[in-house]
Known about the structure:
The complex is a heterotrimer. Chain A is α/β, with parallel strands linked by helices. Helix content of chain A is 33%, strand content 29%. Chain A has two domains: 30-52 and 60-73 and 88-241, no CATH class; 242-396, GMP Synthetase, Chain A, domain 3 (2-Layer Sandwich), CATH 3.30.300. Chain A has helices at 2-20, 46-53, 100-107, 127-132, 135-144, 174-181, 197-206, 243-253, 316-345, 352-359, 361-367, 371-377, and strands spanning 32-41, 64-71, 91-97, 115-116, 122-126, 153-157, 195-196, 210-218, 221-230, 237-241, 260-264, 270-287, 290-306, 379-390. In chain A, strands 1, 2, 3, 4, 5, 6, 7, 8, 9 and 10 form a ten-stranded mixed β-sheet that branches. In chain A, 42% of the residues are buried. Chain B has a single domain (11-345), classed as Up-down Bundle (Amino acid/polyamine transporter I). Chain B has helices at 11-22, 26-38, 43-66, 73-81, 83-116, 122-138, 140-165, 184-196, 203-209, 216-249, 253-259, 272-301, 306-322, 327-362. In chain B, α1 crosses α12 (272-301), α2 packs antiparallel against α8 (184-196) and α7 packs antiparallel against α12 (272-301). The longest helix of chain B is centred in the C-terminal third of the chain and has 36 residues, at 327-362. Chain B is globular. Chain C contains 15 helices and twelve strands. Chain C has a five-stranded antiparallel β-sheet with strand order 1-2-4-5-3, sandwiched between helices. Chains B and C meet through α6, α7, α12 and α13 of B and α1, α6, α11 and α15 of C. Chain A: Residues 25-207 form the Spore germination protein N-terminal domain. Chain A: Its main location: membrane.
Amino acid sequence: MYRRLLPLILCLSLLAATQTGCWSSKEIEDLALYTGLALDKGELTKAEQELEDKGITYSKQNKITATIQVIPVKTTGSKDKQGGQQGTPYQNVSGTGDSLLEIFRQYSIRNERPIVGHHLKVIVISAELLKQQSIGQLMDFVLRDNDIRPSSMVFISQGRAEETMVSKRSDEVPSVHIRQMLRNRSRTSKVLSPMILSKLDALIHSKRSFALQNLVTADGETEFAGAAVVKGGTGHWVGNLNQEDTECLSWLTGKGDTGVIKAYDWDNEPMTYEMKAMKSKIKARSDGDKIRFEVSIETEGRLIETWNTSSILSSGDNTEKAAKLFEEKLKQMMEHMISKLQQDYKADVAGFGDALSIQQPRAWKKVEDHWDEVFSRARISFKYDLKITDFGSFTE
Amino acid sequence: MFTRTDDKITATQAAVFLNNTVLGAGILTLPRGVSEAVKTPDSWLSVTLGGIIVMAVVTLMVKISQQFPGKTIFQYAGRIVGRVPGAVLCLLLVLYFLILAGFEIRSLAEVTLFFLLEGTPIWAIVLPFIWAGTYLVYGGINSIARVFQIVFPISIMILMICYALSFRLFDIDNLRPVLGNGIMPVIRGLKSTVLVYSGCEVILTLVAFMQKPGQAVKTMLIGIGIPVGLYLLTVVMVIGGLSIDSVITSTWPTIDLIRSFEISGFLFERMEFPLMVIWLMQMFCNFCSFFFQASLGLSQILKLKVHPVIYMLVPVIFISAMIPKTVNEVFSLGDFIGRMGLVLFLLLPVLLSIIWLIRTKGLKQHV
Amino acid sequence: MSYIPGWAVFGQAGIALLFPLLANILYKGLYSLVGSGRAVESPGTKNANPSKGQSASQAGVDPAPAPREFSGDYAADLSYIKSTIGRNSDLHFKEFTMTRVQRQAVLIFVDGMQDDRQLNLQILQYLMNEATAESLSAQGMSGPGLPFSQLSEASDLTLFNQSVLFGHAGLLVEGLPQGLLIEPPASTDRTLGEPVSEALLRGPRLGFSEVLSVNTSILRRQGFNDQLEMISYRAGTRIQRDIVLAYMKDIVNPELLKEVETRISKLDIDFLAESGYIEQLIEDNYLSPFQQVQNTERPDRVINALLEGRIAILLDGTPFALIVPVTFSMLLQSPEDYYERWLPSSLIRMLRFAATFMALMAPALYISFISFHPGLIPTELALSIIETRQNVPFPSVIEVLILEISIEILREAGIRLPKPVGPAMGIVGGLIIGDAAVNAGIVSPFLVIVVAVTAISSFSIPMYSAGLTLRLLRFVGMGFAAFLGMFGTILFFLLICSHLTRLKSFGVPYLTPVSPFRLSDWKDLFFRSPLSLMKRRPVMMKTQNSRRKS
Lengths: 396, 367, 550
């Protein structure tokens, strides 16, 4: 019996082996990983323009231009690399259309390798595009896709987003570069804590306003410059915060506890305060329909630089005076930021809503739906406590 | 006895068995399921409350099983409520186990297809998995319990590491305010929490296999306590890390949480890989447990040998896994199981114990 | 009813049923097909004619062909012996007359098996000149009369023949009813040396040899003790060999002893060439890739096992002793763990577990990452892998197979090569071929690392045969990974777990103490706790006497 059974089973398994194969198997080197994605207002690339002129197109509206940064570029014949010109380690591919996935698939009729998003690190959206489309629309595919990790970070660019994906230096990949620049958050609070996709998802879903890190490109170099405010209800970009506002925002939300405050002293010489610790607390109070916030900001730090050589800072009197000046400066900065948020943008990106919802859930319930409006009318009072603890390695 | 021939398991094994039966699909879906129903960050209260209720039911189940030492529910149900109603009840339970087994496999296949093997036909994932399960179940309860014992510490360890690493995203504000909308949302969430504990019914047979049934209450409470704790931790970490709004929109929130951070410079930059590994192993345990219970039940009700029953059930489970056509149907099947579980799970032990009490204490019958 | 799935699903369900059924039939078929040759499966019927000796040693043996009794007649017996084995050219018949009693006698011996000087000078001299009638009298037969330390009487002629050919000196004296066997064969033994397969840095440099009596004496010489019991058996239907069971009488579980005795007594084979034969004939499941009997050359390992309540089986003619029952963790332990201090030993032991895991899984993981889940590896690693793999024309499975198979060939070749050439071959194979293969673009450098680490890991396993198992399973794992990636790898792991939990070695679950969980035995599992903590013998062995310390 087994004599007859055995060949049968062998044949069957052979058949199975040949017919099934390894369905999902794709060699890693045959894939194109993209680490950066830039979204711009629809603007045909040169190649697309030519194709369109020849009548080669598909049904679409040119609403967005998506640029992906593919790494590494396939090097054929890596042996004689020194001879040829050193190419960039990345390749930017652009496409225009009105569906992100469709654009992505369109790349596949141009490139030899399928693109995969497992290693997407950075998404840059141009502010212009965000005026036109809501963030929810633009991020929908990215949030749904199974390849793209929710740890990807979202930025806004002042100019065209694809420019941030180009670097002057030939040995670095701009998207990775941007990602690594975030490490400097330990030195400055002018960089907001990165907005990862899963946080963005929550914000979009709850229709809150939020701030995204702004990117500006100048002369082939990309810089973190302030923040962009995205209005919750509409999901559109409404304006920017400048660098100092961004710094204040970081401090206020408790996400940043580093940075410097520079003030001018009694002799109008600059002096600089280096923050060592920063604590902020938002207290929400509601009496009836009136909502008011009390913010207390406590910071400690050292006086690290002064250009004033005539007066001794460490004498008690002067220290007090200096601290007062810094406090004054901090107050100025904060108030500037708050007024911008309340008057200009009418958007709460600083977490006042969260404070209210946690501390006064009943009051929050009532105003939840039109929070940004209520916020712009809310009274916010500040209390500062700035302490100069030391003077660096100088005693005076 | 040097060589043990009896099919008995120790107290530790029983506790691990129960734990691995209950801990499974819920790790990935529970945060969403509860949050959808609760809609406030109080989901963790629901999970705790649900856990306490389940523990009470577990105690009841153990108590009633202890009245019939060495007998499984399939054997003693008939003695309590009469042969025919008993058989019907037991068949219902078997059916429930079969649907559960199918559900577990299906959700496993869906996750695998979505995250690991895009493009592979679903049967190619389901079939080998069922076969591996068959091999294990064929070995009897002892083998199953032993495999569980291997998988259990690995799962717990890796799960803990994953959560510990995800602590960097944790923000306590996401869990506040506590009871901002009163207690009602918490009550509403109870229903979906019970689903994750479905599978507890294995206690009704498990006690019969214990070497020392006297320790059953303590053992089973530990066995159910671990998943309750882990589920609680899962909900707290996921909601704390992602906030309630993100959790509601995400299909598999726990994976999303783990995918939301990268640890550069670590051997695995991406922790979803170990998480997927232990989750798959946990699902395997889940599936084997239900498969075993179903085959045991059927063989005891119909008085058949257990091995042919196992073979018979293989295609049945496969079909029950393939019945839902879309992911949404899978989830609604999950809800259905939750409801069915609620009935079987609360009603069955309560009903049985009431009838048993009436017959023994009230009517002084000898059962 | 839109919920009823299509025909395809039912078809697949059919396959789902068919496969395990077929597998089961095949398994059972194979088992019954091969199992017929197994003594354990056919309990002692058929031509199984095992000869169980009495515990005294080397006496009372009844060989398979109908034995021919001594006739008592000197001439007839001598002519019978001459007619049966006299044609052997190396057999010498030294006929002489005992001068004191005036009887004919013959000394029969095989050339080279006896110390000639002793034979001529002492035995012959004594027999010819000094032996008296009293010393040959019937009562003095088995001993006191004759001044030989080793003397026994052969019960029948066949045994007499066999013993003489085995190397005993046989003595046939006129008027005595039976032949005498004096002077066992002089050991043509090699000097005892360090075991080759289990080298240690610290520990006795003594291994078993090929001679059973030397081996048993080595065991005895481990120390003063009156509980070490050795029982000898003789097995083999055509050529018989001595087997010795060694155990501690007051420790070993009697049921285990009985089980081992039963299995040994059912050995049914014409010749036991090596203890591997016994191993394969008494193991529980011969379709399992895992060994269920441990083999060792080290007496210290054996004696430690005996003290844990295990049983050792020694076979004449091989330096490899067997230890039963065995658990998985034992395969990863080395005697050195106990000789060195506990902290480093524990670390090394854990390292070995990690190495085992790598030896088993590394190529499978490589395949699943490279071919299936590029999203699960860190970005920078992914980039460097892509760069190194760009010139490799093969999919990762083929790539891994090429390198793995060449490594296996290299290993196999390395064993066969003469000692001075071996290391050179390793260098040639490992370094040059690896480097050349990378340069030629057949494999990627990253894979070379993976394969090399795998190979090194598998060398760190103290048991050679366990390493073989892992090598075999590694390829299975690669197959699973090639089909289903990570999912397949996990499935493979679960299958191994399922298999291991079902496996038993002489009734002891293979994975004890991990599962079934025995916490007290964990002291000697992943780590080796300080000796002062190991107060008890392993619980899993269910020993009679559980305390190690008073």
